[in-house]
Amino acid sequence: MADLILTGASRGIGHALALALAARGERLVLVARDRTRLDSLVTRIERQGGHALAVPGDLSSLKGARRLGERLVEVAAPGATLVHNAGLWPSTRELTPEGLETAFVVNHLAPLVMQRSLLEAGRLRRVMGVSAGLIIKGRFDAARTPTGEDFSSLRTYCTTKLCFALALRDVAAAHPELDVVVLHPGVVRTDLGAREGPLGWLLSLVKRGWEAPEVCAARLARLLARERWSPAGEARWLVEEDERPWPAAAEDEATRRAVRDTTARLLG
């Protein structure tokens, strides 16, 4: 039985995807911070005849991500699929214990740290990055983005998602044995980016017209059922279920080099 490791499984797209995959045959290794919600999800999946394991973990610090990766190595069998679904849309600038901007860690550095342990242990066969069409708005500044000195309640989300998309392209090139894909999942009604006050109220009204997480989850389940996503050594870009050219922001060589060099420096 193959393993499917799913981060951000306790709510939103991740929660809906776990339920959509419950009867498919993989063992679901479900990752999130909230142990209570994870345990409840495991119970629902097993009632539907599925197999699931809760692995609580925290991607809000590099130390926590490293610990999570080590735990996943202990439980995951070789040939696993990793779905990077966890993400953060910050409303204010906050720093991690390492002095880095939180979304830059949660959306970019920490998933790489967690994934590194799995790669080094030979556990992975496929990697899916649930990204965002808003990477087209990303603007990386090597001197300011990691610590959030260029923080914006919109741009920071776009930029950190762009950084991780570029990193997964590099992972695909370095590990041609992997099948890697990065995608925009759709415009989905979740609590990502929730705000307080008038702006939050307005956003909640707008979201009523967006698609339900269950619709997006069915789409991702279909993608996960595909035999192959990308050629060896590449990571293709999908918008929902359709392959598209990588956006210009992800093709800019100066940006790709800056993200690559900064990531390597911060992760040692």
Automatic annotation (TrEMBL):
Pfam family, one: adh_short
SUPFAM superfamilies linked to this entry: NAD(P)-binding Rossmann-fold domains
Keywords: Oxidoreductase
GO MF terms, alphabetically ordered: oxidoreductase activity
Protein name: SDR family oxidoreductase
